[in-house]
Amino acid sequence: MIAKQLRNLPAHLILAVAVVVFAFPVYLAVIGSTWDAGTIGRGQMPLTPGPDGIENYTNALTSARGGRIIGYPVQVLLWNSLLMAVAIAVGKIIISILSAYAVAFFRFPLRMFFFGMIFLTLMLPIEVRIAPTYKVMSDLGLINTFAGLTIPLMASATGTLLFRQFFLTIPDEYVEAAKLDGAGPLRFFWSIALPLSRTNIAALFVILFIYGWNQYLWPLLITTSRGMETIVIGIVKMMGTGEAQTDWNLIMASTVLALLPPVLVVVLMQQWFVKGLVQTEK
Question: What are the chain's domains?
Fold first, then answer.
């Protein structure tokens, strides 16, 4: 037992160092959010919490106004980001699971051609599609709207591919038994395919929620008013440009608040997330 522990010691040390490297910037953000802007600006910030934490977080949530910046209430930005992330995740899952079900269980002309076209979009990053997508949203009058913020990001070739591969693992006996019981395609989907996919749905929801939460380029283009901005855009605008000093205490407090929702989603759905990645239910 001792020999085994000694063999694992280098790996554990490497993992511990990696955790420190990744966690230290987050720790600095948490500590910086409890000090005033002057202390941080002078480079005199200690590595222990300061006395201004409640004031900084209250200011960030309600007004985000400092001595050098005029921001927008972070509570509004967080709400916008939450709505966007949830809508994108749920929309991607619904569209992906329905399209994957059609491709996996139905036989129709050009079925694999359409699947290939869906798969081809994996090779096209959003930057390539952003100009025509923006033109479509503009023609539909969806600029600076919640629909324009979320609908273009709902289609997911990755989700379609993952669900299709999972549906192909469902035994044919399930399909035959459903047919003998008189279940149609929708009943089979609702009563058999969908329950079997719940861990995959949970795992994909976590990934897609974080994807939607971290979106920057598309919200930057599609929103024109401060009230529609997401938290990522709000933090970037707080930083400003030029050589003017910055209210780092408010920025760090806003950053910590922006970290909380995705962390909570991962923590609360950790068990389902792991199952969805490592298990295949049949």
Answer: 74-224 (1.10.3720.10)
Instruction: Give CA–CA dist 19/22, Å, rounded.
Output: 5
Question: What pairs with residue 65 in β-bridges?
Answer: 70
pLDDT in tens, 44-88: 888 888 888 899 899 888 887 776 777 788 999 999 999 999 999
Question: What are the residues whose beta carbons fall under 8 Å from the beta carbon of 254, sequence distance 6 or more?
Answer: 60, 64, 71, 74, 77, 231, 234, 235, 238
Q: What is the pLDDT of residues 146-164, one digit of tens each?
A: 999 999 888 778 888 888 8
Gap between the Cα atoms of 130 and 132, Å rounded: 6
Phi, psi of 171 (to 5 degrees): -60, 145
- pLDDT averaged over every residue in the chain: 84
Backbone torsions φ then ψ of 107, nearest 5 degrees: -115, 105
